[in-house]
Amino acid sequence: MLQIKRYTAKNIDDSIQLLHDLYLEQLEHYPLFLSFTLAKEQLKIRLENLSKHSKYGYALYDDDLFIGFIIGHVIPSLWGKYDGFFSPLHGNAIKQKYRKRGYQYLYQHISDELVSNNILSHAITLYTNDDVSMNTWFHLGFGLRLIDSIKPIDLTSQSTLPNNFQIQRVTQENFKDILPLHKNLRFYFEKAPLFMPQSEEDEAKEIKDFINQENQYMYALCQQGKAVALMKLKELGENYLTQDKNAIHICGLYVDEHLQGQGIASAFLYEIETIFHQKGYTLLGVDFESFNVKGANFWHKYFTPYTYTLTRRIDENILKRN
Q: N or C terminus of the chain: which is more exposed, having fewer CB within 10 Å?
């Protein structure tokens, strides 16, 4: 008989085993994938932090057998004036044979608690190829928002970058050259169909803060000395598996509008792969919004999705009825 208990630190070791079993299910889908072993130490730390600080977490049992869990953290003013709840890739897992019924049961309980506390935006990250989980959450009213994708760094093709283009790393000395591009990237996210409000932080400060961080990089593609494209990368991505030091992750790309659709982004990507292959990386990751039409169409050409983040927003009018 299924029963629910509050998630505690006592559940961490069993949770790691469930997450490892779930990870092993994914390996057949990828020729080269992020390492669970390299991420395991950080995984335990993340679960310890969640169990210590999160008020929203449940463990699922079949009699005395631990079969699953869901836990996450609250994000203030997520997609509106109300707070949200996010269960990351390490924040949920269920044994395979219980997966559909288990997730339904867990969400029924945790969503009641969330909405009772005016937490109306709900998000969860799942493996792309976990069809049972994906279909279960779709039927619970969730839709796709964010995609994490991966590819082996591949240098078998040839560079197609025209001779009048050069790549330079953005530094404290030359960052002003990319200020217009960086500003256009922010404007892009506020336009249809994304409608994502961007930070009002000073443009120059945002760039300098980013490139000052260890293992974070920004590159400009220049045409006859003028920056016409930029790419941002960092060693740590958005989920626990990105602790794998063999991977580098793209977190921003923008090509000047007058050059879009001419193969410049593809050529730029190849050159970036070359740079990071020389640094010893073997995997390249990227995360992007599914409704970023131009971006998604580009990334899907080269990368294979491995996680989806699904979201649901509860109608705030329900609060007037409770």
A: N
